[in-house]
Task: structure prediction
Amino acid sequence: MIQRRAPDDAELMHPVILFDGFCGLCNWWVDLVLRRDRAGRYRFAPLQSAAGERLLAEMKFPPGFIDSFVLVEGGRAYLRSDGVLRVVKTLGLPYNLLYAGVVLPRRVRDWLYDVVARRRVRWFGRRDACRLPTPEERARFL
Result:
């Protein structure tokens, strides 16, 4: 699913990854992208943060939306497998090899995404508080 709106200047410069700040898998994903994105391309915000809620509202998502990873890029929101694949494509080897999954129909990709998403707390745990960026990472979080 892709939703569209007019991007602001900051988003034209940097795609924003919105993630569930309490999810262990989501936080692992953010850590991975921070390590692999040496150019500092991506910015981050928990879905539950003021910045995350503002972006979601601008993109016309319902209040309290935390059902999916969201990549906001170029005025569009890319959800589920679409968002993940757009990010892995930029992370270099071996992660960019996962982009080959784009050949699968979106229905199949999103079904696989949903299988993991439904089990993410059981498999990866849940945090008591949202991830706090280190001083070095702070500039990359909204």
Summary: The two ends are 24 Å apart (CA to CA). The chain has one domain: 2-140. Residues 2-140 form one domain.
